[in-house]
Amino acid sequence: KVPVYGVPGTNRERTFLAVKPDGVQRGLVGDIIARFEKRGYKLVGLKMVWPTMEMAQTHYKDLSKKPFFPSLCQFFSSGPIICMCWEGKDIIKQGRQMLGETQPLASKPGSIRGDYSIDLGRNICHGSDSPEAAAHELEMWFPEGVNDWGKTVDSWVYES
Ligand code: UDP
Ligand code: MG
């Protein structure tokens, strides 16, 4: 059995990706899931959660000293989010690339933020930025675990 945080550096690497309240409100959930599915990644965990203020503060605890922390947590708990656990080779780095840069202005068209966002505080999506962050975030958002299922097309996605 693979632990919830996956096996970094292998095809079983896992990351936590979320569609933030703005992405849900704007109807971008299907598009975002489709991008990762089409690339070949495997969805192993998926649910909608309306974060409490405490959950938002825990999720963003590394930013608690920043001036924007209160407004960020207010926003993150303002409506439901889509919590996802995606699995596959290099998914932590690739997930961040597919999201785009934190700042929408720096995000290339073709990335989620580069295609759909304008403002820093409304940048649609979240993704773990390291294996350590992925482990913490997956344990926080998926305490019940995820699904270790075999995807039959994997031999057409991976050489080995
Ligand atoms: N953020 C903000 N103001 C800032 C920096 C960040 O509102 O000056 C928000 C932004 O929405 C970002 C989130 O806080 O996505 C978390 O910041 P982080 O630096 O972790 O960026 P991310 O990992 O989401 O790219
Ligand atoms: Mg971050």
From TrEMBL:
Instruction: Indicate yes or no for the key word Metal-binding.
Output: no
**Nucleoside diphosphate kinase-like domain: residues covered:** 12-148
Going by the UniProt record, its keywords in alphabetical order are: ATP-binding, Kinase, Nucleotide-binding, Transferase
The cofactors named for this UniProt entry are: Mg(2+)
Catalytic reaction annotation: a 2'-deoxyribonucleoside 5'-diphosphate + ATP = a 2'-deoxyribonucleoside 5'-triphosphate + ADP
Q: What domain of life does the native source organism fall in?
A: Eukaryota
Q: Which residues of this UniProt protein bind ATP?
A: K20, F68, R96, T102, R113, N123
Molecular function GO terms recorded: ATP binding; nucleoside diphosphate kinase activity
E.C. number = 2.7.4.6
Residue numbers annotated as active site: H126
Give the family this protein belongs to, as stated in its UniProt record. Answer: Belongs to the NDK family.
Q: What is this protein called?
A: Nucleoside diphosphate kinase
Q: Which organism is it from?
A: Cyclotella atomus
**What does UniProt list as this organism's lineage?**
Eukaryota, Sar, Stramenopiles, Ochrophyta, Bacillariophyta
Q: Which residues of the full protein are shown?
A: 67 to 226 of 226
